[in-house]
Amino acid sequence: MGGTRGLRRFAPLGAAIVLSLVVFFTPASGVPTAPPGTDKVIHLLVFALLAVTGRWAGLRAGPLLAGLVLYAGVSEVLQSVLPIGRDGDVLDALTDLAGALLGLLAFHLVHRTRRTTTPRTR
Questions:
Q1: How far apart are CA 8 and CA 72, in angstroms?
Q2: Cα separation of 29 and 47, whole Å?
Q3: What digits encode the pLDDT tens for the residues 66-80?
Q4: Do 47 and 100 contact (CB within 8 A), yes or no?
Q5: Which residue from 27, 60, 46 is spatially nearest to 93, judged by alpha carbons?
Q6: How far apart are the C-alpha atoms of 11 and 32, rounded to whole Å?
Q7: DSSP classification of residue 118
Q8: Structure pTM?
Q9: Are the C-beta atoms of residues 87 and 79 closer than 8 Å to each other?
Q10: Are the beta carbons of 68 and 50 closer than 8 angstroms?
């Protein structure tokens, strides 16, 4: 998988990873204020995006989910120990997991629908 095709498949995942790093590791002073619960929605959506773009890149669901679970835990620990004024939160990690599962389910449903509606060539 090389050239332009590989770039088209992996570029969205790379962009999603960079986005997640910015969102999760921006110092507290740079995080805008938002209504309560907004952070959970963002965690859910970012991990759903990571899951969808990971599957789009061709990663298998099981290893991708394992990597996202690891990333969820490590990111929360890092938020609590890095000097960025952020706190780690178990509920954020659980929300991350829910987002990853939601993204995998969404990808599966879209992929399954595309397979059943796309005419087969013989």
A1: 26
A2: 23
A3: 999 999 999 999 999
A4: yes
A5: 46
A6: 27
A7: S
A8: 0.88
A9: yes
A10: yes
